[in-house]
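User: I've been trying to design a sequence by hand for this structure and keep getting stuck. Would you show me what you'd pick, starting by listing the structure so we're on the same page?

Assistant: Good idea, let's start from the same input. This is the structure you sent:
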């Protein structure tokens, strides 16, 4: 991950460029009588090129101007003076300066592109490692800890807010080292509702979250990633925005995977419960049907007309309805399924 260079290194680059020009002058002054001035000009241009490739554009521009001045002072007659005896040397100065500026621009641009490519390669490798670590998480706390370890190298504190849809209103389950204030939750709700990044640079340095990224999964938004910088360097935070958005995307995919895994686990539990219920009802059905069959047969026997030689007696009303007993038995056995179908 690319970070901002310290300010002392910014100043040291110009000092090093001046030192390179002075060393080039000290190395070529003894050769003033041996080498032609055109060859000495090439040596100064080489110094400008090396400065641009090593130290960047600004020091290279300074090296180009300083090289022209040193070349005029030490190598153009009269020596040790900025006066020019021959006006043709002015053309030499102009061409030397133009070539130095152009080569410094090209070399600095090439060096910057190389550094950017190396930084992108490093970020890609870091994101690959992050995705691998998040792929093995089992809880939201583990995912948040991995994201904190990754973004902690940028001096950022991570708070993961997962939307709680089981209760009315927009509420979040917070996972992090601290609880967000009501102001921070307001920014988080705005991020969740509008699906856009929210930044509050005015609160930088106060130890509060100033960057809120939506955790957008392929199917829906799951929550918000809140980032609280430990310093007030918001420019560095802005330069890391693509990396932060990639981390939020990986974290959203992880949360969605955990959501579907929990849903699948609940489904398996319900299937197991249904199988257990069916097994219990099958056992109860077998245990109840045998005595009920005997009772129904006895009721049928009692419901038959009496024999001619015996006095006529009507059987009790509770045993002459075998069909009603069968219907009640079926209703009893199907009662759990009916109750589950009507429950919310």
């Amino acid at each position: 991950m690319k970070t901002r260079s310290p300010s002392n290194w910014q100043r040291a680059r110009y000092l090093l460029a001046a030192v390179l020009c002075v060393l080039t002058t000290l190395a070529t002054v003894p050769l003033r009588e041996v080498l032609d001035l055109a060859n000495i000009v090439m040596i100064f241009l080489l110094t400008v090129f090396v400065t641009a490739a090593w130290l960047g554009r600004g020091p290279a521009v300074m090296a180009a101007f300083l090289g022209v001045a040193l070349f005029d002072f030490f190598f153009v007659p009269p020596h040790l003076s900025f006066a020019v005896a021959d006006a043709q040397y002015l053309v030499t100065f102009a061409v030397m300066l133009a070539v130095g500026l152009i080569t410094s621009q090209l070399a600095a641009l090439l060096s910057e592109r190389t550094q950017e490519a190396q930084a992108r390669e490093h970020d890609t490798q870091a994101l690959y490692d992050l995705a691998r670590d998040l792929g093995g998480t089992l809880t939201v706390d583990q995912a948040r800890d991995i994201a904190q370890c990754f973004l902690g190298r940028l001096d950022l504190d991570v708070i993961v807010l997962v939307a709680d849809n089981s209760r009315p209103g927009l509420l979040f389950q917070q996972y992090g080292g601290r609880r967000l204030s009501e102001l921070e939750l307001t920014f988080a709700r705005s991020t969740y509702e509008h699906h856009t990044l929210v930044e509050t640079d005015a609160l930088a340095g106060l130890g509060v979250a100033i960057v809120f990224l939506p955790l957008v999964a392929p199917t829906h938004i799951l929550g918000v990633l809140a980032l609280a910088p430990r310093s007030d360097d918001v420019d560095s935070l802005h330069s890391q925005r693509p990396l932060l958005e990639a981390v939020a995307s990986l974290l959203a995919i992880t949360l969605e995977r955990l959501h579907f895994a929990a849903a699948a686990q609940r489904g398996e539990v319900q299937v197991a419960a249904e199988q257990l219920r069916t097994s219990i009802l099958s056992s109860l059905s077998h245990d109840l049907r045998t005595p009920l069959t005997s009772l129904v047969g006895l009721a049928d026997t009692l419901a038959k007309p009496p024999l001619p030689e015996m006095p006529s007696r009507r059987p009790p009303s509770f045993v002459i309805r075998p069909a009603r007993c069968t219907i009640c038995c079926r209703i009893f056995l199907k009662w759990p399924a009916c109750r589950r179908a009507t429950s919310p």
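That's my pick for every position. To get oriented when you compare it with your attempt: The beta strands are 156-164, 171-176, 198-199, 211-216, 221-229. The longest helix spans residues 241-303.
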